[in-house]
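Q: what sequence does this backbone want?
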């Protein structure tokens, strides 16, 4: 059984990024001090699997896939401040996938898997590259 704390933290070697769905995203240093936090609101999910998507880090951004029964988004946040770089609205419902960042032809893209579709987004702009 999953719980509301089933997400996995990630690190870039400088900070730790821990995401807890409705409880937010936290950036901590290696001593456990919170550097910043981001609240996305309350998720409305189906089933009892918890809110188990994990963040991804790539260069200067942290990516959070926020898929639930209301408006869903893929967020790109500045990893130093937590401020939104961009947000892409998604036509999705509850999913538990973690975004994957890959480079294709020297350009980074964020691949998301969800209930309805797999999508790729430009990592710099949030523009959908393909569905």
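A:
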């Amino acid at each position: 059984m999953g719980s509301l704390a089933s997400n996995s933290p990630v690190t870039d070697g400088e900070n730790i990024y821990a995401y807890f769905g409705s409880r937010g995203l936290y950036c901590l240093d290696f001593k456990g001090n919170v550097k910043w936090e981001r609240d996305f609101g309350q998720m409305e999910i189906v089933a009892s699997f918890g809110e188990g998507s994990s963040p991804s880090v790539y260069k200067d951004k942290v990516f959070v896939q926020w898929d639930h029964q209301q408006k869903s988004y893929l967020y790109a946040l500045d990893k130093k401040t937590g401020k939104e770089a961009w947000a892409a609205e998604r036509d999705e419902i509850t999913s538990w996938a973690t975004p994957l960042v890959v480079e294709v032809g020297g350009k980074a893209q964020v691949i998301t898997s969800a209930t309805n579709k797999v999508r790729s987004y430009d990592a710099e702009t949030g523009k959908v590259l393909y569905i």
